[in-house]
């Protein structure tokens, strides 16, 4: 949350009321809204900030941005031209909340981190909650990490180092290592007094943990329960035994799924011996949920983890891989067509109609595949309902295949004057939609079984199937029907 | 959370230890784990439940499932064959937590709601937090809604009715109407005592609100802050002034974006006059975040809001729309090809290669389009950075177009023995990738400006562009290059 400086004495609407002297009429300065109605950083506010940076007017910038939420400062930084970002951070000085860095795109964050001296960084990062500090540190290379860690107090350094030692994408990297743990025999009153007296509490927390003398987790108590209970009650009487708990080595995707499923707001992280080592918080988990849903979308579209702030070369290279893979698919489809050069030369109408068959199959397969990929990700598709879902997909494919066959058959007959051509395309579309439904379901399932992320790999295989079968069925049936040379 | 019956005295691992008598050796019954290692309901547990349903053994079922989290019961219900779902709910009786219904797919929920008597439903729903009750009621038709509402106590009925009166997809439908509001002059001690004495508190909450005598919101205090503060301190001294607040009529998507941006766990909902009417909670917002990310994925793949439990007919109809729209696109592409029947008849190799040009353009466009759709949804793409992003997309398209042109040009030359054909396909692929990049970005942007959801409509237009331009460029350049008849 935002810290320090209250440059604006009192805010009324978008107006800052500076009370220079209690006897004078307050001086009123119009501050434009930070965001426009679409939720983007407003042009007026950005112009003021850019003017402040140009004039190196630190007090003005602190007045404008020192009090903003870190998410607003982050969006502001991203809205600035690249060469004004670090100057803004420098000018804000102590008023810059380093939690802002956690809200930035990775490329922007790294460029800021590279351009700030490590002692400034160490000071800023040292003030953060441990989960935020780890989030920032984990992207740095080992040397830069060490340079910052070395300047932190011993206990902070050890804590952060331990979190960084957990594998990437593990719960250990997400967890907050400051939390409150009390023994079960304490009373509610003792617990409240303890919280009032302890200095080094996390910024926010929603539950406290109950541990045995070996620091093994034995329960948790949500804060609202503490507040509703009489001071004399023992913690052991109100604690939730066996709360939902995660190992620090658990995959963050599994953790996110459990948070979502059980509507959790926070949860304990324990080590292999069951000892409490951290606290997982919903705000970090929301980011994971968002990223996971987005990963499927990106995977299906053949995108890596590119960000809008990446450079042209990085983006081009990451997208090229996908295009090259698809080039092979397209080459395979072309090979199938080349088998039918003679029939096509004899009846050019085939060349006109053949892409329709392939593309309708591709569209139908993409629908099924998207459903299958998401159902696998959310664990809705299981070995138990696989047959039921397959039957459903085949029936849907058949129904829609029939409808398209009637429409396309009629259209092709009218266009070419050849009822036979209408029959051929109708048969081909029914066949291709059937395979589209089956492949759209079974390919993601098979990939998942093989340990490959179905979101990333499915569409290449599925498109290959619908292209190859589409061209083969249409051109093959046509050659047979019209007795064309092969 | 799960209520009532503790059929298993003490749990050790997956084992239930029933202490029949303190002097006897405890009787140990093996209960299989509810979920298997992939997080799906385990086959063993399901078999036990199915046996219990077949034997109509209510006590056994209550012992197995009465104590589970509502999310587990929901997954269990969905794992059961359709005709065993309502019997399970009936057999669980009072031990069935109606919050379970909020975790079910809509089709499953509706079929259960239709098969339970309205007085049973009213009793179960009456015990829920208001946000859960509204979630269940909003899917019912007016008559069924009224039948349940009529059996609720007056105050509950009025509260639920008011929430239901807010528009669909508004914050008002998501909010919890039980919350704690105190005047600013109360002390922390008074507030804690008030919470200890008030009966009708929400199941969970993370902050309390501060209101003026007109019940207008003036601040909020997170629970951890209350617990850290001395009893004598006034609430007004520790409250957050101007907390992030939403109107009950706000769109839930905007609310979700703000929760995510500002890492909120709960927030107040106010009416048009600024009076506090409800509390928005992160667990409901997580569902919205998930749904919104998924909506983009579904939209791009041409899927409506189908669920894996929908019937074949419903699914087929909802997918057909998309296929028919794409049929028009494919028809347009075929029309372009038909303009070049003469050149194709003269050189059949063109028919073999032309789908490659169209499909590479389609793939590149999908990449750009997916980035654009997500960047629009997350407000990362703005009028300000549009030109920068466009320039980047054009450069990426150009770089990848060049690479593909070299590969395809060489391949086509080797295959056909005609260097000219290699040149033609190289030129065509560069042109098509350029248009793919431009259309992939500008079409979603234009659709958003026109007030159409870019996730749903973009890909039809984008595919049309890459198909039409791909075929036109390749066949047109070939006809010119080789002087083919038109």
Automatic annotation (TrEMBL), chains A, B:
A cellular component term, taken from the record's GO annotations? plasma membrane
Query: What is the protein's known function?
Result: Acts as a magnesium transporter.
Q: Pinpoint the CBS domain residues.
A: 239-295
- Family to which this protein belongs: Belongs to the SLC41A transporter family.
Annotated keywords:
CBS domain, Cell membrane, Magnesium, Membrane, Metal-binding, Transmembrane, Transmembrane helix, Transport
Please give the superkingdom of this protein's source: Bacteria
Tell me what this protein is called: Magnesium transporter MgtE
Q: Which InterPro entries match?
A: CBS_dom, CBS_dom_sf, Mg_transptr_MgtE_intracell_dom, MgtE_N_sf, MgtE_transporter, SLC41_membr_dom, SLC41_membr_dom_sf
Q: How does it assemble?
A: Homodimer.
**A family per Pfam:** MgtE
Question: Which SMART domains does UniProt cross-reference here?
Answer: CBS, MgtE_N
What is the membrane topology listed in the Swiss-Prot or TrEMBL record?
A: Multi-pass membrane protein
Q: Where in the cell is it found?
A: Cell membrane; Membrane
- Name the principal localization, coarsely classed: membrane
Q: Which GO terms describe its molecular function?
A: magnesium ion transmembrane transporter activity; metal ion binding
Q: Which residues cross the membrane?
A: 320-340, 346-373, 394-415, 421-447, 459-484
Tell me where the signal peptide lies. none
């Amino acid at each position: 949350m935002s810290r320090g400086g209250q440059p604006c004495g009192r805010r009324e609407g978008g107006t800052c009321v500076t009370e220079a002297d209690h006897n004078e009429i307050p001086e009123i300065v119009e501050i434009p809204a930070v965001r426009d109605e679409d939720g983007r950083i407003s042009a007026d506010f950005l112009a003021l900030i850019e003017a402040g940076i140009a004039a190196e007017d630190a007090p003005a910038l602190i007045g404008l941005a020192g009090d903003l939420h870190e998410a607003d400062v982050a969006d502001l930084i991203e809205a600035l031209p690249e060469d004004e970002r670090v100057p803004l951070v420098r000018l804000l000085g102590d008023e810059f909340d380093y939690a802002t860095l956690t809200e930035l795109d990775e490329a922007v964050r790294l460029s800021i981190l590279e351009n700030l001296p490590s002692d400034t960084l160490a000071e800023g990062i040292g003030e953060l909650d441990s989960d935020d500090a780890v989030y920032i540190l984990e992207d740095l290379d080992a040397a830069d990490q060490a340079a910052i860690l070395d300047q932190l107090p011993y206990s902070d350094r050890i804590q952060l180092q331990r979190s960084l030692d957990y594998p990437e994408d593990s719960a250990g990297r997400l967890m907050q290592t400051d939390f409150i743990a009390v023994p079960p025999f304490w009373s509610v009153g003792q617990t409240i007094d303890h919280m009032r007296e302890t200095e080094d509490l996390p910024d926010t927390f929603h539950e406290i943990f109950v541990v045995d003398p070996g620091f093994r987790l034995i329960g948790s108590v949500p804060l609202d329960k503490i507040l509703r209970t009489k001071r004399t009650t023992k913690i052991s009487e109100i604690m939730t035994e066996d709360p939902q708990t995660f190992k620090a080595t658990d995959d963050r995707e599994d953790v996110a799924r459990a948070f979502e499923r059980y509507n959790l707001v926070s949860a304990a992280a324990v080590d292999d011996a069951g000892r409490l080592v951290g606290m997982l918080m919903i705000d970090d988990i929301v980011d994971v949920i968002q990223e996971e849903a987005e990963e499927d979308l990106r995977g299906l579209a053949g995108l890596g983890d590119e960000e809008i702030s990446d450079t042209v070369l990085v983006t081009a290279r990451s997208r090229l891989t996908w295009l090259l893979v698809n080039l092979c698919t397209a080459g395979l489809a072309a090979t199938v067509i080349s088998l039918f050069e003679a029939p096509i030369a004899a009846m050019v109408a085939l060349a006109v109609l053949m892409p329709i068959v392939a593309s309708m199959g591709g569209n139908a397969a993409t629908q099924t595949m998207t459903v299958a990929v998401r159902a696998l990700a959310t664990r809705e598709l299981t070995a138990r309902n696989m047959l039921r879902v397959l039957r459903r997909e085949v029936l849907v494919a058949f129904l829609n295949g029939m409808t398209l066959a009637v429409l396309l058959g009629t259209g092709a007959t009218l266009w070419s004057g050849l009822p036979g051509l209408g029959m051929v395309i109708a048969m081909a579309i029914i066949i291709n939609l059937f395979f589209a439904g089956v492949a759209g379901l079974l390919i993601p399932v098979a990939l998942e079984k093989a340990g490959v992320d179905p979101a990333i790999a499915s569409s290449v295989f599925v498109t290959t199937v619908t292209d190859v079968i589409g061209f083969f069925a249409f051109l093959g049936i046509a050659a047979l029907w019209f007795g064309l040379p092969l």
